[in-house]
Specification:
570 residues; Hypothetical Protein Pfu-838710-001; eleven-stranded antiparallel beta sheet
Length: 570
């Protein structure tokens, strides 16, 4: 069954044992209050042995009882939490063996990275819920009175407490109940304490339903005043699971080993300006590792351009590592570059097919209808899309395998404590400028070699020049992002250098893409001819691709001159 989702925005309060809920019928925006029958909720929470989900502020549980029985994953999301839901039968927990629903596991795979899930806590909740309706009868909030008994399955310690949760209903990331997501379930684990329903949608003018941050927060504020007036106090813990494990904050790493590496999220970049070269390089690498982790879910969803974006991040990482060989330990940096190259190749297979399909679509759409016929489209577009789907499946297999997860762990460890090279302690600005000068020399040398290469070697030489320009561009952009370049003039000169290198990269990329497409069209034309098909359209496409390649080659000369000018200013 498909996974559903909703956005959870809640506040949590502690009450004395035996305390009840106040009358909430007089709250502004509430037309009526419905008291639901008391239910017993039994939940088992799971995590890795080292607590990766907890450190990433994520919870996963299997809960029985109540109307939203099933598996739940709760992810951080702005002012609230995104809750994913799957049916009970989609997964099992038998002893220490956890088989989670595939859809939910996909949502946390980047964090758990193939490590097995195990039960960490069992929570029993006796819940009496009040459902608040607006004047039109629509459900707008739930106030749940919970008597909780929890067992830490690692230590065996049992804890009990009494709490109240107030949660907005009918809220999701886009402003309404989404995809049939569970709307009647209790709010649990990691709700927001300060309550704003940020970006939660639109106000229903007729009913006043909380569809905006302002209206949602106003309703929660009104509920809070009533609860505090009845003796409740704001909860010190934002999560039932954290409390079950004896903590106030779920992200406290005391549940497992490790220091945060491997948690699925790179350490935050320091706001201080880096003084040494290794500080600046480390800041750039941390930012890029964060970008890589952020790109991963979109690739798994197969979002438009997601493969391209992730591939760019991989190339940026490799470029920074290459340009920083004297700042970092060269052997370890090169080993990491090699592992990133493997990921880049798998991404490249999918991206190349995607580009081929897009270029073919643009070219064929411009042809007369009788030329761009079905067979031509099948050979150049349908086949390329089929190649993309095949390559994307291969990519997903790689992204769910030990080699990729091992790479992510290695990146976490590397950026947490970058291995120092000979110039690690050099002043940041001086070391970065020196590294950029070397990259400039390399890029201009490759460009010169491409210009003088024999025809048979021209494609390879131009590809090498393009890669050198790309590496220079990414190194220059990383130097700016890392904060090691300080003076306004230097920042402007480095930015101009990055822009000039990007121009060389783009023009040489246009040349390569057009040339590769022309040869692909030529090969497909031969197959079409052998099959007795019309080939005129192939000739038109081939000629257009060759003209585009020649035009790019002409523009490349001016782009290289621009790079030389920017380099002299640096």
């Amino acid at each position: 069954m498909a996974t559903t989702r909703q956005t959870e925005i809640e506040r949590k309060y502690d009450v004395e044992e035996g305390g009840g809920l106040p009358d909430l019928s007089g709250i502004e925006g509430v037309g009526s209050v419905e008291t639901r029958e008391t239910v017993t909720l039994e939940a088992v929470y799971v995590d890795t042995e080292r607590g990766d989900l907890a450190r990433a502020a994520i919870t996963m549980r299997r809960r029985s009882g109540g109307k939203d029985a099933g598996w739940h994953v709760k992810l951080p999301a702005g002012a609230g939490r995104t809750e994913l839901h799957a049916p009970l039968e989609d997964g099992t927990i038998e002893g220490d063996e956890v088989v989670a629903p595939a859809g939910l596991l996909d949502a946390v795979r980047l964090v758990v990275r193939g490590r097995p899930l195990v039960p960490v806590a069992r929570i029993r909740t006796e819940r009496t819920a009040l459902i608040l309706h607006d004047a039109s009868g629509r459900e707008v909030a739930e106030v749940a009175d919970d008597a909780v008994t929890a067992t830490d399955l690692r230590s065996g310690e049992e804890r009990s407490w009494h709490e109240v949760e107030a949660e907005l209903l009918g809220i999701d990331e886009d402003g309404g109940a989404e995809d049939g997501g569970v709307q009647d379930g209790g709010a649990e684990d990691g709700g927001v304490q300060d309550g704003g329903a940020e970006d939660s949608g639109r106000q229903d003018a007729a009913t006043g339903t909380p569809r905006t941050a302002e209206s949602g927060a106003a309703l929660l504020d009104a509920i809070e005043r009533a609860l505090l007036g009845a003796g409740a106090v704001a909860s010190a813990s934002r999560s039932k699971l954290a409390r079950a494990l004896g903590r106030d904050d779920l992200t406290d790493a005391s549940t497992g080993g490790g220091t945060g590496a491997g948690s699925g999220f790179a350490s935050a970049t320091s706001s201080k300006r880096p003084k040494t070269a290794i500080d600046a390089v480390a800041a750039s690498l941390r930012s890029l590792v964060g970008d890589l982790l952020a790109a991963d879910p979109a690739v798994r969803r197969d979002d438009a351009e997601s493969v391209h974006e992730m591939r760019k991040v991989v190339r940026r990482l490799r470029s920074v590592l290459a340009a920083s060989r004297r700042v970092l330990d060269r052997e370890q940096a090169d080993a990491l570059r090699a592992r990133l190259a493997t990921l880049g190749r798998v991404l490249g297979e999918a991206r190349d097919a995607e580009v081929r399909a897009a270029r073919a679509t643009t070219g064929i759409d411009a042809l007369p209808a009788d030329v761009g016929d079905r067979r031509l489209r099948n050979r150049l577009i349908a086949n390329a899309r089929r190649d993309y789907r095949r390559a994307h499946r291969k990519l997903l297999t790689f992204l769910s395998g030990p080699e990729y997860f091992g790479l992510l762990d290695a990146l976490d460890e590397f950026v947490a404590a970058p291995p120092a090279g000979k110039r690690a302690a050099s002043p940041a600005g001086k070391a970065l400028r020196r590294a950029l000068e070397k990259e400039v020399d390399r890029s201009l040398r490759r460009a010169g070699e491409a210009r003088s290469a024999e025809a048979a070697d021209a494609m390879d030489a131009q590809h090498a020049a393009r890669k050198a320009a790309r590496r220079l561009r990414y190194a220059a952009e990383a130097a700016q992002a890392g904060g090691g370049i300080r003076s306004r003039g230097d920042i402007e000169r480095v930015a101009a250098l990055a822009a000039a290198a990007e121009q060389v990269q783009d023009v040489l990329g246009d040349h390569r893409d057009a040339s590769v497409f022309a040869e692909h069209v030529r090969a497909e034309s031969g197959r079409a001819h052998a099959a007795g098909e019309q080939t005129f359209g192939y000739g038109v496409l081939f000629s257009g691709a060759r003209r585009a390649a020649d035009d790019a080659e002409t523009r490349a000369e001016e782009a290289v001159r621009g790079l030389r000018r920017a380099a002299k200013k640096l």
